[in-house]
Design a protein that fits this description.
The complex is a heterodimer of chains A (about 475) and B (about 290). In chain A, β8, α15 and β9 form a beta-alpha-beta unit. Chain A folds into three domains: about 130 residues, Fumarate Reductase Iron-sulfur Protein, Chain B, domain 2 (Orthogonal Bundle), CATH 1.10.1060; about 160 residues, 3-Layer(bba) Sandwich (FAD/NAD(P)-binding domain), CATH 3.50.50.60; about 150 residues, FAD/NAD(P)-binding domain (3-Layer(bba) Sandwich). Chain A contains 18 helices and 16 strands. The relative contact order of chain A is 0.12. In chain A, about 35% of the residues lie in helices and about 15% in strands. A five-stranded parallel β-sheet of chain A has the order 3-2-1-4-16. In chain A, strands 6-14-7-8-9 form a five-stranded parallel β-sheet. Chain B is of the alpha/beta class. Among the domains of chain B are: about 90 residues, Beta Barrel (Elongation Factor Tu (Ef-tu), domain 3), CATH 2.40.30; about 110 residues, Rossmann fold (3-Layer(aba) Sandwich). Chain B is about 30% helix and about 30% strand. Chain B is built from eleven helices and 17 strands. In chain B, the strands form four sheets. Chain B has a seven-stranded mixed β-sheet, with helices on both faces. Chain B has a five-stranded antiparallel β-sheet with strand order 5-6-2-1-7. In chain B, α2 packs across α9 and α5 runs parallel beside α6. Classes of the chains: A alpha/beta (about 475), B alpha/beta (about 290). The interface between A and B is large, with 40 and 41 residues. The complex binds flavin-adenine dinucleotide, iron/sulfur cluster and FE2/S2 (inorganic) cluster.
């Protein structure tokens, strides 16, 4: 890359992501972003200044060697770039699609001080797709078997990344998953148009090839307790990666009317159970066609739900959010895409009550206008109700996407495991060790709803600590 | 894949399956359920575990074929396979020696009441069971109930067998006879459970019902199974399925179970035969007003 000067590099504009036209994609479930071509990728890679002190890495929760992999892309060594990323990130095809890069690596990138930052996420995605589609996932070498057995509970990003590391260090790994499919939120929550399920399937298959055993339909706590895994089932250590998975509701009157879903239910019906292909698949979902759909919340989950409703034919699909646009926690790209697809945004509106007919069907929601006051503990300005501003919005379907609490099953069935008052498992952040011997935990069950990359990072931290624990259980 | 070891019809459209599922057989307790997915395009359908055999590693489920999924399940025969069976799910029934316990099953509800009735008997209760059905050919598990409870009463709506009337009438008769009843367990269509709750309420008899809302995951993840109990929202799959009948908001439950059009709703509502009968019955009448 030596032939280009810094100035030349700075002149190259950030390469746009080829995508489906908004008016077409808002009626189908195919992926919105089509991915860089080789030419676009190489051009984008040339924008990287190859900083002596690459600050982008500081923004990456798992420390991907960004500068090095980008340099390999510029040299067209795409396979080498893939291997480089995988030293730190086991699920780049996923992260390249769903990480909030604008708050992580790309926010730090120095090019961003003057111009648009290097499109690190798009490059990551390109490299991972190239590997998967052109050469096939590389199956790494595993160390000789240690004879130790580890149980991993949950097959989301935390569980999968922990499994990947532990199998390579020679341990036997079994992943227990409550649902009939593997991947956690990646398969039941995040829609096909943002993360094709095929990608997750290929990743899981690669782990199977490495020898990871997957047991679906296994609800730990019921099917086996953690104590049983550690005793009768003969596991030497357990990693809990069960995610958040207990949806919050607004707790306002009328919330049990027909036509009101949690985002988890709505997205599970559509993604996991494939209700968007009903009646080819048997699971129904409330018919959004020509209906007014409102989604309450402002995170990625809310954007996924509202865009899904749009694709299912909603006449209007709106986000109703208590705060203003600036506070929206969703990824910038999702907000941008949602707008392009015709999603309405009702900012500074707070729901007070759902209204229904005599048969229990939702037909409206009473909203109250809000204004922003002083910043709260999270640093975001606190919404305050505007007195006398109540009005009614006509809606036929509502989706509540205001986050998840923690699932009670393990809490009820695992003596000796300590939780905080919100039901999150307490761990040592350096080792992911819980209060129970041989039991580790990470991902959303520890942090509360967070991100794929943080869950993945936690899985890897735990894998390292489990490896040490297995070598020396008494320390 | 889960192998069907036995399959036989107990009544028209009501089939009993014995399924190879050793782990579930070993772990399950009365009152718990499984979620079944018949094929890889299928819905997730919750079904109560009617019985289990630890030695043979099998569980029993009893299915009424009404919607697509349950009909598809009921078309399966011995030796065939079910795609997914997950469980045991839900809280087990609270079992203790209450004294005298009446277990009431309406339609396929009898199959759901059966394991809990059995456990109540084993815990030392004097157990009475009432089996309700529309007509003689729909009466199920009479002999099985006889084997595990002290008294069995069969009621049919059309009088073709046993007592001519509804389970509520029979219950009123038993209460009226002066017998002290300490617990009533009522499982069947929602209107029936609601009617039973109103029969026992004035007498202050502890009454338990098992709710069967639409479910998806069955693990607390989706909230689709929510119901209102004691003015609070509960998730039936993890907080139940059994609740105090006097605290359940049956109105909301009935409405919520009609979310999907009739065919889908029925696919998930495994006790519909009796439902129809009770729907047509004026609730006022059932309440004895
Ligand atoms: C709709 C939606 C969109 C999102 N979009 C983004 C995004 O764009 N970018 C981003 O970074 N993050 C996003 N997130 C957040 C991200 O998906 C999560 O932070 C991440 O998946 C957490 O990973 P995890 O491994 O901890 O748990 P999960 O992915 O939740 O996986 C947990 C798994 O454990 C299983 N399980 C639960 N209990 C048991 C049990 N008792 N026994 C066995 N198995 C059990 C569950 O069925 C599940 O499969 C989104 C979340 C949602 C819901
Ligand atoms: S900060 Fe930006 S320019 Fe510097 S190495 Fe990282 S990606 Fe390249
Ligand atoms: S069935 Fe999903 S929470 Fe109960």
């Amino acid at each position: 890359m030596a032939e280009l000067s810094k100035k030349d590099r700075m002149k190259i504009p950030r390469q746009a992501m080829p995508e489906q036209e908004p008016g077409i994609r808002n009626a189908n479930f195919k992926e919105v972003n089509l991915g860089f071509t080789e030419e676009l990728a190489v051009m984008e890679a040339m924008r990287c200044l190859q900083c002596p002190k690459p600050v982008c890495v500081e923004g990456c929760p798992v420390g991907v060697k960004i500068k090095d992999f980008i340099s390999l892309v510029a040299e067209r060594d795409f396979a080498g770039a893939a291997a480089k990323i995988k030293e730190d990130n086991v699920l780049p095809a996923v992260c390249g699609r769903v990480c909030p890069q604008e708050e992580q690596c790309e926010m730090k990138c120095v090019v961003g001080n003057k111009n648009a930052p290097v499109a690190i996420g798009r490059l990551e995605r390109f490299v991972a797709d190239y590997e998967r589609e052109q050469i096939g996932l590389r199956i790494p070498e595993c160390k000789p078997k240690t004879g130790k057995k580890v149980a991993i509970i949950g097959s989301g990003p935390a569980g999968l990344s922990c499994a990947a590391d532990l199998i390579q260090t020679g341990h036997d790994v079994t992943v227990f998953e409550a649902l009939h499919e593997l991947g956690g939120v990646l398969v039941y929550g995040i829609p096909e148009f943002r993360l094709p399920k095929e990608i997750v399937r290929v990743e899981v298959e690669a782990l199977q090839k490495l020898g990871v055993e997957f047991k679906t339909n296994a609800v730990i706590g019921f099917t086996d307790s953690i104590d049983e895994l550690l005793s009768t089932e003969g596991f030497d250590a357990v990693f809990i990666a069960v995610g958040a998975g207990l949806p919050y509701f607004l707790n306002i009157p009328g919330e049990n009317l027909n036509g009101i879903y949690s985002a988890n239910e709505f997205l599970t019906r559509v993604n996991l159970m494939k209700a968007y292909r009903f009646p080819e698949y048997d699971t129904p979902v409330f018919d959004c066609k020509d209906k007014n759909v409102a989604v309450f919340g402002g995170g990625n989950t809310a954007m996924d739900a509202v865009r899904t409703a749009k694709r299912l034919g909603a006449k209007s699909a709106s986000i109703v959010y208590r705060r203003s646009e600036k506070e929206l926690p969703a990824r910038a790209e999702e907000i941008h895409h949602a707008k392009e697809e015709g999603v309405h945004f009702e900012f500074l509106n707070n729901p007070l009550e759902f209204l229904g007919d005599e048969n229990g069907w939702l037909h409206g929601v009473k909203l109250q206008k809000m204004e922003l006051g002083e910043p709260d503990a999270s640093g975001r300005r606190r919404p305050i109700a505007v007195q006398g501003s109540e009005y009614i919005m006509d809606i036929n379907m509502a989706v509540i996407a205001i986050g998840n609490g923690s699932n009670p099953i393990l809490r009820q069935t695992t003596p000796g495991l300590d939780f905080n008052k919100w039901g999150n498992i307490l761990v040592d952040p350096d080792t992911m060790k819980t209060s129970k011997k041989g039991v580790f935990a990470g991902g959303d069950i520890v942090t509360g709803g967070a991100t794929v990359i943080l869950a993945m990072g936690a899985g890897r931290t735990a894998a390292k600590a489990i490896n040490e624990y297995l070598a020396n259980p008494e320390v | 894949m889960y192998k069907i070891v036995e399959a036989d019809f107990l009544a028209p459209d009501v089939k009993r399956f014995i399924i190879d599922a050793p782990k579930i057989a070993r772990k399950r307790k009365p009152g718990q359920f499984v979620i079944v997915r018949v094929t890889d395009h299928g819905e997730r359908v919750p079904l109560t575990i009617a019985d289990s055999d630890i030695e043979n590693g099998t569980i029993t489920i009893i299915v009424q074929g009404i919607g697509k999924s349950t009909k598809q399940l009921n078309s399966l025969e011995k030796g065939q396979f079910i795609q997914d069976v997950v469980g045991p799910l839900g809280k087990a029934s609270h079992i203790e020696n209450f004294g005298t316990a009446v277990s009431i099953g309406g339609g396929v509800g009898t199959a759901i009441a059966f394991p809990t009735a059995k456990a109540l008997k084993e815990a030392g209760n004097y157990t009475i069971s009432i089996i309700g059905a529309r007509s003689k050919n729909l009466v199920i598990l009479e002999n099985e109930m006889k084997a595990i409870t002290d008294e069995v009463h069969v009621t049919t709506d059309d009088g073709s067998y046993g007592y001519h009337g509804f389970v509520t009438d029979k219950l009123k008769e038993i209460i009226g006879s002066g017998k002290k009843i300490d617990l009533v367990l009522a499982i069947g269509p929602i209107p029936m459970m609601r009617a039973i709750a109103e029969v026992t309420r004035p007498f202050g008899i502890k009454t338990i019902v098992s709710l069967n809302p639409v479910m998806v995951d069955g693990t607390g993840m989706c909230g689709g199974c929510r119901a209102t109990v004691d003015n609070k929202t509960v998730f039936v799959c993890v907080d139940g399925p059994e609740f105090d009948a006097h605290q359940v908001d049956f109105e909301t439950l009935i409405k919520r179970n009609r979310t999907y059009n009739v065919a889908e709703k029925e696919a998930l509502n495994h006790i519909c035969h009796y439902d129809a009968a009770f729907d047509s019955l004026k609730l006022q009448e059932a309440e004895g007003k």
